[in-house]
From TrEMBL:
This is Aminoglycoside phosphotransferase domain-containing protein. Residues 23-243 form the Aminoglycoside phosphotransferase domain. InterPro entries: Aminoglycoside_PTrfase (IPR002575), Kinase-like_dom_sf (IPR011009). It comes from the Bacteria. It comes from Hasllibacter halocynthiae.
Length: 327
């Protein structure tokens, strides 16, 4: 038995789940693996986050505890071995918000309102200690990687510095906890009507509204403009934020996030061998353009010299899948 498989088997024995049936589950954009375990005592999810691949479950455990303390719904931790990167989690089932809306599109408004309420509660907790910072410098650095991975060039410095300055100017105010991947495929509609939260291990202190951008400017699905507007209005009203200022911050953060996602989609194909993400790029490019149309982000448009995602650009990223060995 391979060494990793032996460690997983030993963990499951200690957790009393050695005899359960095991079915692979779709993973996320990281290197973590997931399996569903089914046995006489019910269904659970195994998270296998191999430290040998650079994974670390301790941030997940930390943020899960923070979310639970707010009365929110991260998966319950059934068993854990942080040293080996193994967790046994409560199984929320398969009703991802995105899948529910494929079956029942009429529920979009109500479910996005519920998601906005989750963000309102997180925002109300202020800036908890012990989280990494994701502020103007970090955000600009992350977005600047798009020139290397998406455009194949190395010199975004004028745009990087201009973005940093724009974030600092427009997105000021107290930071709050941002889960940083808050969207319809990381939210689960639970049987009691609540929303289960997934994939939050990269949480950080970020400008208020960062997760709201992630929710309403989703790389994976088109959110109805009316639903997006209602979610933003609900968040603004509940948090007491000035709507004009919030809209400006959302445009600048939306631009940063969209440019960063261009990089992620390209890197997932070129380095990690996952070409399916390339086809998300046209939607994300549309988000780039819509954010640039807002006066708060418009000054960045003349120096955003990334190529539009023509079919040639997309097929080239797919054709070079898995050919870039180093990050």
């Amino acid at each position: 038995m391979p060494e990793r498989a032996a460690k997983v088997a030993a963990f499951l024995r200690r957790a009393g789940r050695a005899g359960d049936g095991r079915t692979p589950l779709a993973g996320d954009a990281g290197l973590r693996r997931y399996e569903r375990l089914k046995g006489p005592e019910g269904s659970f999810v195994l998270m296998d986050a191999d430290p040998g691949l650079g994974e670390d479950v301790r941030p997940f455990l930390d943020v899960a505890a923070r979310l639970a303390a707010l009365g929110l719904r991260p998966p319950r931790i059934v068993a854990e071995d942080p040293v080996e990167g193994l967790l046994l989690l409560e199984d929320f089932g398969d009703d991802l918000l995105a899948r529910v809306l494929e079956r029942e599109p009429g529920r979009e408004g109500a479910l996005y309102a519920r998601a906005a309420d989750v963000l309102t509660r997180i925002d109300g907790a202020g800036a908890p200690r012990g989280l990494p910072r994701y502020a103007a410098d970090e955000m600009a650095d992350a977005a600047a990687l798009a020139w290397r991975w998406y455009a194949g060039r190395e010199d975004p410095c004028p745009w990087r510095d201009a973005l940093r300055d724009r974030i600092a100017e427009v997105c000021g105010g107290p930071a709050t906890m941002a889960l940083r991947d808050f969207h319809a495929e990381n939210l689960v509609v639970l049987g009691d009507g609540g929303l289960g939260l997934l994939d939050f291990q990269d949480a950080a202190l970020a400008p208020a509204g960062y997760d709201l951008v992630s929710l309403v400017q989703d790389a994976r699905r088109d959110v109805s403009p009316a639903v997006a507007e209602a979610a933003v209005a609900r968040f603004a009203a509940a948090t007491g934020r000035d709507r004009a200022g919030l809209d400006a911050a959302l445009a600048v953060m939306g631009l940063q996030r969209a440019v960063r996602v261009l990089m992620i989609c390209a890197r997932l194909s070129l380095h990690f061998g996952r070409p399916r993400y390339v086809r998300l790029i046209p939607r994300v490019w549309g988000q780039v353009q819509r954010n640039l149309a807002h006066p708060a982000a418009a000054p960045l448009a003349p120096i955003l010299d990334l190529p539009a995602p023509s079919e040639g650009v997309l097929t080239d990223l797919e054709a070079r899948c898995g050919t870039v060995p180093t990050l």
